[in-house]
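writing this on my phone so excuse typos. first protein, seq and then structure
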Amino acid sequence: MKRIKHIYECLHAHKQWFFMLMLTNLLFIFFAWLAYPETFNVLVSLMLVFTLAMIAVSVFLIMRKEKRIEAAFEDFLLEPNEANEEMLCRVSPKTNWPFIRKIGSALRSYHEERNEQVLELADYENYIEGWVHEMKKPLSLMTLVLDNRSDEMSPLVRQRLLHVRDQMRGDVERILYYARLGAAHKDYLFESIHILAFCKQTIEDYQTLLDESGFQIQFIGEEMEILSDRKGLAFIIEQAIANSTKHAAQHQDDPMITFETAYDEKSDQTILHIHDNGPGVSEEDLPFIFDKGFTGGRGAYTRQATGMGLFLVSKMAYDLAIQLEATSEPGSGLTLSLGFPKVKK
């Protein structure tokens, strides 16, 4: 079927030449009728057989040439160097040579610019990752000092240092996760997790931020078991906490984060709702809070945001097959809902 379609396309592409051949045959058939009426039928039969044979040979030669052009064109697109350009010109009609040379010049220029950009991006990524690892050294030193010299500090100074350390650590983690977004291989390890216990464990690393902001933590619902990657899920929860501490504490005297579990029978999913009582997000901003760099318009919730935290959360949720939704009304806080699909063991 494919070959028949190819033959039809070939005939259609050169229909004007075949039409002229048919008109010429009709003219010679008319001359044969006038000149040789007694052998008219024989001459017409021979002429039709010869015409059909010529058409078949022409189609065969055209299709063969098109295959050669197609192969040369594919090589030219994969690597538009001068050798492949010359090979394509050799098998193509001479009238197409100027266009082929212009395309080759444009493609080579584009490839050179792209290679330069790839090298610059690789250098930038290496620099950022190197800088992040260098930043871990003073963080480790700060942790060592806080663990071993805390008795020499006042409680207020120690709390402030812990607060700054945790903020810096969160920023470093965001940079690392952002750098890993484009990685070809991601080391996710899916395992069974008790969701509420895991949330309590994750909160311990952010306890100083919560204490500094005066947050209260509330857990609602039954303990449920889900299947996910611990590091990735911890990153999502940490970013939700950081997002809330950045905004809710500035607008509430008694800021609170609530972790609530539920089961949705309709979608057969375990749901974790993370809710704060901050200023919330305006209706026009809500559909865009997971977009890269989006910091909101009039909503007070995103006034000091960088637009990267929730963007990274959405990317991580996609990698972990978590259905992520956000609901909010101005003045009622923001709720992030994480839907974990049920996995059969």
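second protein below, same order as before
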Amino acid sequence: MEFDSMENMKEGFSNSDEQNLTFHYSREERLKKAPPLVQSYYEGDFKAYKPGIFKALVSTKQNRTVFFVLIVCFAVVLVEGFLNKKNQSSIQGVPLELTAFSFEENVYVSLEFQEPSKSYEKKSSVPVYVEFSFSDESGNLLEKTSLTHVYEGKKSFLRTTFHDYDIFSVRADIVFEDKATSLTAPVEKK
């Protein structure tokens, strides 16, 4: 039976045909055939899966890979931070630390000689020769200064000042008895 319009469709059906049409819907019957997850949801017993942060990080292969990469990167940063201190060193058992900061157009540099370790043979006084090299942002050498210091086996400082605000790093070449070492420190802006 074909209909050209809604009017023709209405004319094609009689009132008795409309009364004979019934729609059967039973929610209980539909839920009987539903999967157990849907049934538990409609009964109110459904509990959403809420994994902990660790379970979420290792739940799939991709998550485990990302988690492993994060752990490796964190370990590398820690090791690099502990081992790669260019402004600290030790020579002949004496710990050294180089610091530098700028304030009002001047750069203040301090080389700290700390208490020696137990392996250091205490001597009355040891001459120390230090050459400070000042570099700009691109690594170009701006100036060098040589100083001498007498280390007497206790905490002491060797300090110098340079008048140039464009210095970005300081390098100290230290000769302590017959050993030599180098320290590098960035200039902190204050």
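The chain has a mean pLDDT of 79. thats all i got for now
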